């Protein structure tokens, strides 16, 4: 599933930029000939040793620019190592989630999806026609949520916001611009 990454102002951030930055941040290859990846580095920092299969799953998720579910991850991992089972992918995701290394996303009517927890905070819009997940950040929404929590007597420590939408036809869009 394709994902458009956007910054505050809705400008697109190219996936290539993210990938290049990641490549720069990682070190030499592992014994399996795989590059070290962000999840692996976090595991190491937490004293978690990764087996070959888990390292491979970590690599695939680290390089994902979308929000894959377990089936997507398994399909991608199986291209590199056909013997890795779907059950191993599920178990590994559960473990990573418990360690706070990956975030589990439960969008309406779909399978659980995953993304690395270290990603910069963002919210999601789900296109109900295509299932595409669009990432966005909106400073005003962030401020409003904090204000609501404060009014209720709380200090906001986190939130999850999901928008569900269908594409506005191009014709209507241009009329709104007039
Ligand atoms: Zn996301």
TrEMBL record:
Coiled coil: none annotated. Binds 1 Mn(2+) or Fe(2+) ion per subunit. CDD domains: Fur_like. Keywords: Cytoplasm, DNA-binding, Iron, Metal-binding, Repressor, Transcription, Transcription regulation, Zinc. GO terms for cellular component: cytosol. Gene3D superfamilies: 3.30.1490.190, Winged helix-like DNA-binding domain superfamily/Winged helix DNA-binding domain. This is Ferric uptake regulation protein. It comes from Microvirga brassicacearum. The lineage of its organism: Bacteria, Pseudomonadati, Pseudomonadota, Alphaproteobacteria, Hyphomicrobiales.
């Amino acid at each position: 599933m394709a994902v458009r990454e956007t910054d505050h102002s809705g400008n697109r951030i190219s996936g290539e930029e993210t990938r290049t930055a990641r490549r720069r941040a990682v070190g030499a290859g592992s014994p399996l000939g795989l590059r070290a990846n962000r999840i692996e580095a976090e595991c190491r920092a937490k004293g978690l040793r990764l087996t070959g299969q888990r390292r491979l799953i970590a690599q695939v998720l680290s390089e994902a620019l979308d929000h894959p579910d377990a089936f997507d991850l398994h399909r991608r991992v199986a291209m590199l190592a056909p013997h890795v089972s779907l059950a191993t992918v599920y178990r590994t995701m559960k473990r990573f989630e418990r360690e706070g290394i990956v975030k589990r996303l439960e969008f309406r009517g779909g399978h659980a999806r995953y993304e690395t927890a270290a990603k910069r905070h963002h919210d999601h819009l789900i296109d109900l026609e295509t299932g595409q997940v669009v990432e966005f950040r909106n400073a005003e929404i962030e401020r409003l949520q904090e204000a609501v929590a404060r009014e209720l007597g709380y200090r906001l420590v986190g939130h999850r916001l999901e928008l569900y939408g269908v594409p506005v036809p191009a014709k209507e869009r241009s009329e709104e611009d007039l």
